[in-house]
Structure formats: structure tokens, C-alpha cells
Amino acid sequence: MKLERGWMWCVLLLSSLAVATQETQLDVDISDMDEDMGLDEEELKVLMAEEVEEEEEEEEATVMDENLLDETDGTASGKAGKAGMDANVSFQVTYKTPVPTGDVYFAETFDDGSLESWQLSKTVKGDADDDIAKYDGKWAVEQLKENKVPGDQGLVLKSRAKHHAISAMLNKPFVFQDEPLVVQYEVNFQDGIDCGGAYIKLLSDTGNLNLEQFHDRTAYSLMFGPDKCGEDYKLHFIFRHQNPLNKDTEEKHAKRADVDLKKFYTDKKTHLYTLVLNPDNSYEMFIDQSSVSRGSLLHDVVPPVNPPKEIDDPHDSKPEDWDERARMPDPEAAKPDDWDEDAAAKIEDPDSLKPEDWLDEEPEFVSDPNAEKPEDWDEEMDGEWEAPQIPNPACETAPGCGEWKRPQINNPQYKGKWKAPLVDNPNYQGVWKPHKINNPDYFEDLQPFRMTPFKAVGLELWSMTADIYFDNFIITSHKEVADRWASDSWGLKKLVASANEPGIFAQLMIAAEERPWLWVIYILTVGLPVGLGVLFCWPKKSDDDYVYKKVDPPRADVEEEEEDEEEEGEAAAAAAGDEEEKAAEAAEGAPAAATEEEEEEEDEADAGGDNLEDEDEEEEEEEEDEEEEEEEEEEEEEEGEEESKAPERTLEEESKEGGDVAEESHKQAVRKRRVRKD
Q1: How far is CA 185 from CA 93, 154, 155, 363, 469, in A?
Q2: Which of 45, 77, 294, 361 is least surrounded by Cβ atoms within 10 Å, i.e. has the fewest?
Q3: What contacts 454, CB < 8 A, 6 or more positions away?
Q4: d(CA 20, CA 9)
Q5: What is the DSSP letter of 311?
Q6: How far apart are CA 187 and CA 273, in angstroms?
Q7: For residue range 193-223, what is the model confidence (pLDDT) as tens digits?
Q8: Tens of pLDDT along 612-638?
Q9: Cα separation, 252 vs 222, whole angstroms
């Protein structure tokens, strides 16, 4: 039963492991193909339906490993490339330049391969060195380096350690009134990012906006996008608020994102950045259609939009007799007479003795005898050459060389500088604070959403890393329009990237290379089920053998008792039968009873002597039986001693002895039965 239970546990354990593995694979597939793309089931169905309808009009492209996507020259090489393409197809997608499904203020895909609607800045950056002040960074329209979607192109920042500035006009200015603002675009740090930004600026409609003079001081209404330098990963949302009293403009920074942003800068994937700004002053930022930060323009920005009603009086000052000390030195305390402030913290150990074999005359370091002066050594320029110093070989076997000094120990008399103990200050008045007065610059703006209108979008960036990819800009007032735009563009990129991702084991290995401590988790994850499997499934030796060895001799006694009981039952039955026969004979022989009694009386005298002889014989037999029983008991005791002296006898020998014991017990039972019958 124990062995069967072990196999049952084994089967249950293996079944659970198989189910867990299958669920993990399903979760990975679903998360990669659905949730990670940010597309729900309805959007995927609509997307696939449109692709089927437009299949005849669009050019089908094959998504494969990037090493197979290089174009070849010549007809023969072109055919060979096509054959290789068909042999390595993972799946096919049809890309069509996305078209906005609603009213938009700006939309750009770069799929036409030109920058006709964009203007490069021709000015210089202020407060910068002349050699780097000019906006001479290069821009290009290219495909992605990895996970390409054929037909899809984007704007790429090509230069490193240079200033870049490019901008484009909106279809119409956006006015902050009663409609939300939705800003969305894609970014891919194709080579990672060391230090630089990928944010956009919405340039204010000031009446004198000139895109050729776009620079860092050009007025903007808000700025949004990723930025990184060192290990500081940020997602900027900055808007410029105008003071209604003095008309000064001040930048307001939204609070930091609620999630770790590092992976969006290092995974070399295309990510979707979205900002939603509502007329009720609420805002929300999304990455890959997942919310990472939300708040209010009135309460969740630094510095706050509205200044405090009261401020500290700038003319108020702390009185000279104001005591802010909560505790003070005890004025009644005095330094003890035996307190020596000049005692040294360390003293020489008076109990230490110089070792007998200490080498006083040997230096600790000597010149290297194997060193040679370099051939190009110029004593006039470099000075006199000296061999480098090495540890003295003579000191290796000795406890020390040079002048011996006693080791230092802590001075038991050292107490340091005496200080009076602290007591509560009876004159404590608390921490001084200046008086509050009404803020002369106080104002209350309950509609910070109503910012300065903007009519252009611009990228003004400095980066130490090149090949930053931008694509699919859209500015609208409807979140649904932006989501539909993302599903037609960014959704396909995520689909291709998910299909080209390495398997689950490759991802685990990559993660372990980045975080070596994951190996411990991997080993435990694999080793624990294996250990449990061995524990529950490994066959164990049955305990029945050991039980049989222990109870084997007593089994003969049990059989003896059973035989004795059977014999007693048979004897009782025989006795009952004899009584019945006697009763029957008595009934038949009633007429002859008188004659038999007379004959018995006559024979009594003759049988007296015979009965005495029979009784003597019975006593002798009983004595012989008792002697035999004593001899058998002595033999059993001797056998027990032999068993205790030889515990390593085999099972066959024990079975033979058991048979002998059974025979002896059978003989003894026969003797007892004879005695009873007698």
C-alpha cells in the first residue's frame, strides 16, 4: 500500500508540472500576442478583417530574420533571395499607411520617405560653445533596424553629441477650451540611450513663430516625452503657466511616473507614448497604452500653479535671547579629579617581548638583484637609476626584520575629553518661525488647462546616442482616434516584434546574464520538483520482511494453541459421544443390572491388586513427561541464546529452525494429548 501511494503521488506531481508548463506557455503566447501589444480582441478582429479586404490592393511583405532581408543585385541573385525568403517565412503581414479616422490637428507617418512638411532649424543654441552651438545634427527617414515592417518608415536622429532641431506646422492651431488634448507618438532607442531625450515640444502660437529660428528658448505651451541621463529615467510632462498678475511664465513639472521606466529605454523596442489632458485639469500619461501616471494640474505639479495665501514675513527676525535648545549641559556638573583628558588612546604593550630570532640588522626591503636598467634610460633626463625594492628574502622565515617596536594596545586610563551631561533646558522656547503675512503675489487660477494655444510641433534634442527612431505623430481631441491610429501602426510593430522574440528558454538565459542571482531561482525551480519526484516515486523496501523475522517464532506457538483448542474440542465431542453411548447401554442393560452388580462385587476383591499396579505405572509416566518437558525448555533456552549470538542468520536458516520448532511443538502436543487421555 505504501508503494502504491508513492506512485500515486508521483503521477499527481508530474501531472501538475505538465499543467503548469502548459499554462505558462499559453500565458506567454497570449501576453506576447495580445496584452503586450495593447490590442483587445475586438480590435484584432477588425484589424484582421481589414487586412483581408485590402489584400488585393496592398503589397504583401514577408517578415523574417533581418539577415535575410538584405536586397541582392542582379536577376539571378534576386531570384535566389526570393527563394530564401519563401523558405524562411514566419508569417505574412500587410502594412498600409494609417489614416486618421476622425478630426486631427496633426498626423505624420513619414511613409512617403520625405521631410517636405518639416523644417530644419538654421539658428544656434544659446549659452553653448561656438563649436557645438549650431543645430547641425542630421535627420533621416529610414526603416527600423530590427523587427522591420515592410513599407513602414520613421524619422531617425542620426548624429551623436550634436544639437538637433526640426519642426512642422499643425493643420490648424489647437486652442485650450472645452476639448481634451491627446498627443501620441512612437519612440525606439535602437542602440539604447546613454544620455539624451526624445521629447517633443508644442510650440506656442505667439504670432511671430519662425520654424527656421526654432531653438531651446522658443516659446512652447507644453513638453512631453522620455528623457534619460545616467541612471535617471524620466517621462517629462512640463507645461508653461502664465502668472495672471505680472504675466510671467513659469514651467510646471508633473510628478514622476508610478512605474520603473528603465526597460522602455533598454529593450530596443518601439514604444507608444500618449498624453491625455482634459478640460477639468486632470491628466494621464500612457506607455504602450498602459497608464503610468495621472494627476491634476492644480495639485500634482511642482511648483504648484497657485501660490500660498500666506507667506513668512521677510522682515521678521529671531530675537537674540530666543533659546531653541531643547537640552543643555548640566551647569552643576563638574569634571572628576581623576579624569585625565591628556591621556593617550593607545600605549605600548608592557608585557610584550621581542622574539629571540628577530633580525634587527636586516632591512625589510632590499633592491631587486634581478632588475636591469632599461636600455632607453637617460640619467641626464631621468636621473640616477635605482633597482626596485622587493621584500627581503631573509625575513620570510623570521618573525620580523628591522627595528623591533612594542605593539600598541588600548589605554585603560583613556577617557577622552570630559563633557557635562545634558539636562532639559528650562528656558526652551521651541524652534523660532517668522510671522505669517498675506502674500502680495497671491492669485487663484482654477483653469490652468487653458494654456497658450500652439500651432507647431518640434523636436529640439541633444543626445550622446544616435539612431533614435520617431514615428506616427498624432495630435487630436479624441482618445478613440488615437487608439485606432495606434492599432493600425504601432500594433503591427508589436505583432512583428513579438513574433521575432526568442523562445522562453532564450529569454530566461538572457535574464540570467543580466541578473546572475536568477540562477538560484532556476535551480530551485528545477531541483525542487525533481527532489519531490524522487522522494515520492522511488521504490522503498517493504517492511514485511522485518516484521516476518520478528514474529516468525511466535507463529508456531499460535499454531500450537490452535491445535490444542481443536484437540480439546475433539476430546469434548468424544466425551459427549461416550456419555451418550453409556446412557444407551445403561438403558438396554437395565434388566441385567442386578446380575452385573453381583459379578462386580465378586471381582472387586480380585481387581484390588491390579488397580494399585496401574496407579504406580501412571505416576511413573507423569514423572517421565515432566522430565521431557524440562529438557525441551532447556533446549529452547539454548536455541534462544544461539539466536541472540547469531543475529545475521539468513532467512532460510530461520525458516528451517521454525520448522524444527513446529515439529517439536507438535510432538509435545501429542504427548499432552496422551496424558489427558490417560
Answers
A1: 22, 11, 11, 74, 11
A2: 361
A3: 170, 173, 174, 202, 203, 204, 205, 220, 221, 222
A4: 16
A5: E
A6: 8
A7: 888 899 999 999 988 899 999 998 999 999 9
A8: 444 555 555 566 666 666 666 666 665
A9: 9
Q: Which helix (H) or strand (E) holds 310?
A: strand 310-312
Give just the sign of the alpha carbon dihedral 489, 490, 491, 496.
positive
Query: What are the Cα distances from residue 193, in Å, to 188, 312, 438, 501?
Result: 10, 44, 48, 21
Q: How far apart are CA 235 and CA 291, in angstroms?
A: 12
- Sort 477 into a burial class: Cβ within 10 Å, 0-12 / 13-18 / 19+: middle
**How many Cα neighbours within 13 Å face the side chain of 394?**
13
Cell of 448: 490652468
Q: Are 268 and 189 in contact (CB under 8 A)?
A: yes
Q: 469-480, pLDDT tens digit by residue? A: 999 999 999 999
Q: What is the grid cell recorded at 551? A: 514474529
- Out of 25-34, 234-243, 349-358, pick the least confident: 25-34
8 Å CB contact between 149 and 63: yes
Task: Read off the amino acid at residue 238.
Answer: I
Which of 262, 270, 199, 275 is closest to 38 using CA atoms?
270
> What would the grid cell of residue 526 be?
528545477
In sequence order, what are the residues at sequence separation of 6 or more whose Cβ sits closer than 8 angstroms to the Cβ of residue 17?
Answer: 529
* Partner residues linked to 119 by β-bridges: 167
| Count of other CB atoms within 10 angstroms of residue 570 | 11
Decide: 99 and 86 in contact? Cβ < 8 Å.
Answer: no
| 556 within 8 A of 665, measured Cβ to Cβ | yes
Contacts of 170 by beta carbon, 8 Å cutoff, 6+ apart: 105, 106, 454, 455, 456, 457, 475
527 SS3 class: helix
Give the span between the Cα atoms of 252 and 301, in whole angstroms.
Answer: 6
Long-range contacts of the stretch 248-251 (C-beta < 8 A, 24+): 249/219, 250/303
Q: With contact defined as beta carbons under 8 Å apart, do 443 and 244 qualify? A: yes
DSSP string, 407-445: PEEE-TT---S--PPEEE-TT------PPEEE-TT----
Apex 475 CA angle, 471 and 480, nearest 5: 100
Percentage with pLDDT > 70 across the chain: 65
Q: How far apart are CA 536 and CA 10, in angstroms?
A: 6
Residues in Cβ contact with 545 at an 8 Å cutoff, skipping those fewer than 6 apart: 651
Cα–Cα distance between 237 and 284 in angstroms, integer?
10
Report how many helices (DSSP H) and strands (DSSP E) the chain contains, helices first. 12, 27
Q: Is 477 helix (H, G, I), strand (E, B) or coil?
A: coil
Residue 678 CA to residue 673 CA, distance in Å, equals 9
- Give every CB contact of residue 423 below 8 A, 6+ residues apart in sequence: 327, 328, 329, 330
The residue among 38, 68, 67, 56 whose CA lies nearest residue 94 is 56
Eight-class DSSP state of 102: S
* pLDDT recorded at residue 167: 96
For residue 244, what are the contacts with CB-CB under 8 A and spacing of at least 6? Answer: 443, 445
Q: How many CB atoms lie within 10 A of CB 509?
A: 13
